[in-house]
Write a structure and sequence with these properties.
The protein is of the alpha/beta class. Among the domains are: 146 residues, Rossmann fold (3-Layer(aba) Sandwich); 67 residues, Alpha-L RNA-binding motif (Alpha-Beta Plaits, 2-Layer Sandwich), CATH 3.30.70.1560. The protein is built from ten helices and 14 strands.
């Protein structure tokens, strides 16, 4: 089956010489949830804007559901729903009028039943006659999603969809995304909540300085790059690490009460049994131990550090 989105050789350089996007090749399958991660200014929004026909690329082509986004813009764009990062809507209109009007912009015949379903799915039906300016930030975000779904797109872009949304509403949206995927909608998600990508994505792409440095299935990525952390709660605190433990890369935490060891769980020799034996031989007792699998956030930060050598505070837009 051909990809629903086929990106070939896309790049973007602005007139001033700023290269916002280096050459990107990417294919996304029908019904897939693809998460695009990257720090501020990495090029995520530029890439989405090109795919949606908002920004013209310097080179390359984008085919959306069989239609070229430049030469066949109207048909390609009709296949796409976009929830932008910024809240941009008519504050003086009612919720239902805004969503209905958005459907008409794409040439869709009126369908009050479908609009009602979208609003109910997003818990907006009770607010349908409220003016948008009276809504909370979370409810305005839901209206943006309703607008994007109003013309029944096959492809949905969510650019930081849950920014400013509380945890309960965020989980409601996750459930909606899953239902959309089950109906065959392809979803491309950018987020600075890495747990969002970890929760929902089938594949993950990491973009850095305009370059797509990695695309991998989420489970394969976590298996390939994920580490485990062994934490030992010591019976008696240590002032410093003894030289006898130098062959292990250990970290002393919690004012000397915890000993932390990061290891590759897929390696033939993890070093854990020999570490525990050495601690016993040296007479170190511990009250408890636990292991933790690296999260997608750990992996993302390690990838960015590897490619920049600099620390990253988060994964904003």
């Amino acid at each position: 089956m051909p990809p629903v989105i086929d990106i070939q050789g896309i790049s973007k350089t602005y007139k001033g010489g700023l290269q916002a996007l280096k050459t990107v090749d990417l294919q996304i399958g029908k019904g897939e949830i693809f998460a695009l991660l990257g720090p501020n200014g990495a090029g995520k929004t530029t890439l989405i804007s090109i795919i949606c026909g908002i920004v013209t690329p310097s080179t390359g082509t984008v085919i959306a559901d069989g239609h070229d986004i430049q030469s066949d813009y109207r048909r390609a764009r009709s296949r796409i729903g976009l929830v932008p990062q910024e809240l941009t809507t008519d504050a003086f209109e009612t919720v239902i009028a805004t969503v209905t009007f958005s459907r008409g912009l794409f040439g869709k015949a009126p369908n009050p039943g479908f609009v009602e379903k979208v609003l109910r799915d997003l818990s907006l039906w009770e607010k349908r006659n409220d003016k948008i300016m009276t809504l909370s930030g979370g409810m305005k975000r839901r209206v943006m999603i309703a607008k994007a779904l109003s013309h029944e797109p096959d492809i949905l872009f969510l650019d930081e969809p849950t920014a400013g949304v509380d945890v309960e509403l965020r989980r409601d949206m996750w459930e909606l995304v899953r239902r959309l995927r089950e109906s065959g909608v392809t979803i491309i998600l950018t987020t600075h909540y890495i747990e969002e990508a970890e929760e929902m994505a089938d594949r993950v792409g990491v973009i850095l300085k305009g370059e797509l440095i990695l695309v991998e299935e989420k489970t394969a990525l976590m298996k390939k790059l994920g580490k485990k952390t062994l934490t030992l709660n010591l019976q008696d605190p240590l002032a410093s690490l003894p030289p006898e433990l130098g062959e292990w890369d250990l970290t002393l935490r919690a004012e000397g009460n915890e000993l932390e060891y990061v290891f590759d769980s897929n390696a033939e020799r993890t070093g854990v049994p020999s570490l525990l034996r050495r601690l016993s031989d040296l007479g170190f007792a511990f009250k408890d131990l636990n292991t933790r699998q690296s999260s997608l956030e750990d992996i993302f930060v390690s990838l960015v550090h590897r490619d920049t050598g600099a620390s990253v505070q988060g994964v904003g837009a």
